[in-house]
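Table S5 (text form). Sequence records supplied for joint modeling of the two-component complex.
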Amino acid sequence: MDFKKLLLRNETALIIAIVILSLVIGAKSPEFFTLANLFDIFRSSFVQLLFALGVLIVIISGGIDVSFPAVGIFAGYTSVVLMQHFEWNPENLLLPIALSIVIGTILGAINSIAIASFGIPTLIATLGTSGIFRGLMLTFIGSSFISDIPIALDKFATADLLKIQPEEGTLARLHILIIPIAIITILVSLLLTRTMFGRSVYALGGGVEATRRLGISIKRTQAKIYMLVGGLSGLAGILYVSLQRKANPYDLTGSELDIIAAVVLGGASIMGGYGTVFGTVLGVLLISLIKGNLILLGVSGSWQRAAVGALLVIGITVQAINESKKAKNRRVSTSDEAAE
Amino acid sequence: MVTLLTAEYGVENIVKSFGGARALSGVSLSVKGGEVHCIAGENGSGKSTLIKIMSGVHAPDSGLIRLGDKSFTQLSPREAVREGVQVIFQDFSLLPNLTVAENIALPTYILKNSRLLSKKQTNQLATNALDLIGVDIDINAPVADISIASKQLIAIARATNLGVKMLFMDEPTTALTRKEIKRLFEVVEQIKARGVATVFVSHKIDEIQEICNTITILRNGEVVSDGMMKDFKRQGISQAMTGLDVSETRIAPKLKKSNDKVIEVKNLTTKPTFSNVSFSIAPGEILGMTGLLGSGRTELAEAIFGQYPVDSGEVIVDGKPIHLNSSSAALKAGIGYVPPDRLTQGLFLEQSILNNLVAVGIDQYQSSGGRLAKSRLAEAGDRWIKDLRIKTKNPLNPVSSLSGGNQQRVVLAKWLAMNPHLMILNGPTVGVDIGSKREILEIIRDRAQEGMSFLVVSDDIPELIQICHRVIVIKNGQISKEFSEEQLDETVLYKELS
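The corresponding structure-token record, covering 838 residues in total, follows.
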């Protein structure tokens, strides 16, 4: 790939945005450029990234899922409630994680049925199920805040891979999750680029009819997508509970905005067909930076939400402008070819 | 491959209804490996339904699908692909967001039931397929970025790739020029030699006669005639297809001698696409413009309509130079343009027929206060449907429910409604059956008689000869020759073209 193309890539623009924003924040407040802050940004990105990877897959396929926060908190909270109810309190994390992933996948399967079997538009389907999931959880599972979460989950909140004490300043802690999250991220990337399922997801986003004619089952692909997103959301949900060291059924409300903004800023086309895992990672980092550190610039919390919303709109506008530019170039290049 | 050559593919007694309407009533056909078979028929004759049944899109109500020694009562799209049935649809069915290589290789992976793919293998598959048909295209380019002619070649490469036993080509030559059609036919000969049963669906009788060994003619969902191609005559085919006696004699109206000019194009230049193009058109005159794909003919037409950038030159309408590079200026000056790709450029497919008909001249239907006068809209819609003989039960149905010929008539009506001085028609009968074609040409003739001028851009030489007063041939962006009414002759024109 030549240099000009590299510059035009969405990822490049994101890296530049992240660097500039960091420099601006760093210039205003010296505590920004510390290891402790960097590790904090990572920590606050883990759950976001898991959600975002799921949303990325859906968006590439030409759909949208707004039910993932509901699925995440439903799965995480329900797992905790179940463990308390049956007095399961194992030392290791396997049980709560497996439980939450299974619950998430089941909820994802409900989305799959609505979308693949009944053909309900994805936004409407997941908006609806989102309400159903939250309502069912609050009615039948519980509506109270749980602070004494299972011991394994509680311990995991402080499981650090690295602890570095600088000569002055706060202790920098790098959470151990960085390793599994990195592995999952790479796996999702491989899934999207190297497997037939992954390419089917792109194909679906490129054109439903053409995909069907290739002999790819639209329904099966969609069903897999929404179950996979459910599973990822379930994992994200239980990790969220663990890192927060509490299970609050009202949590994660409104986080759709941050995640979808991160994925779209990461270059995934809201029309489907385009998007990369690397772009999504950068998008998540950018949003975490804004959410966690804009306050250092004296920007109040309420304005951060507006900023994220504005970024989402800007991201989509840039996509639209690029698309129309491309279309223009295409016309010219087609006639160039013709002139030869 | 020897066994392939004796294998037979086809259908037996296929019946298919949609709702109450019979699309196919007991159709049988059989194609041998290594044979090129033609399915000819008007729009609505059941050709598309038949293809969809064989490719697994629709399940037949009754009847059998035979593929070699296997029989099926119905196929799923996946089974069809696995059994070696491939269809090249008119829209190519390519995925714009994936690379050329992936578009070619994906069906092979699906056929082999692979779960994983490697870039190396993908590129290998694509390179092999393109080599097989002798085409050189950048396999790493996204399909969205390549030209239409290349897309066609990719679709062919993809379908001819590994494992294809029966290949359907639905109107494969519509977007191609003579030269490219020749190339396509060479490719068809190659796959024929490899024992593939090829089915050609086309309206163009010249081409059918050139390439096909056997033919089945469908009308209203029934086989009206079939047999060896060599036993059929041109007239016989069109008569069997339409059930009418359709002649291809000249229908251009007599042109009154006059020195008036509706439009004068002077030294139009955009390097390197076209340069120093000058011509004029008289009132009521039908000027034909032809040239190979890439000659600049389409760009020229678009330039006159302000849709393609112009570096220098003038376009004078009714004595006044118009502002170039602006289609709204062209519209205001009374120039209309019907693009070749009516499906993407000329119509709002999901909107109603009525809405499409009145879309261009929408200002005419405003009542006081800027609201649209619904009754006048409906009245105008009904008038156009009647005038242009558009076959529909309800003008409120979406345009996408119409057949190709009828869609083209909607596009025409839409533009005729604004009563332009000059109407530019680019490929007016592309993808249109013989009966509809005749009617469209008659519409052009009638309008010309009323004084409307036409610029007809087409590579259908017989059509140009039928309808035009004069024909100019574009070569490398310049007018290479002009033919007057007396000089119009098929062989001479073809010779000038190639």
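Note: Chain B has two domains: 2-242, 263-497.
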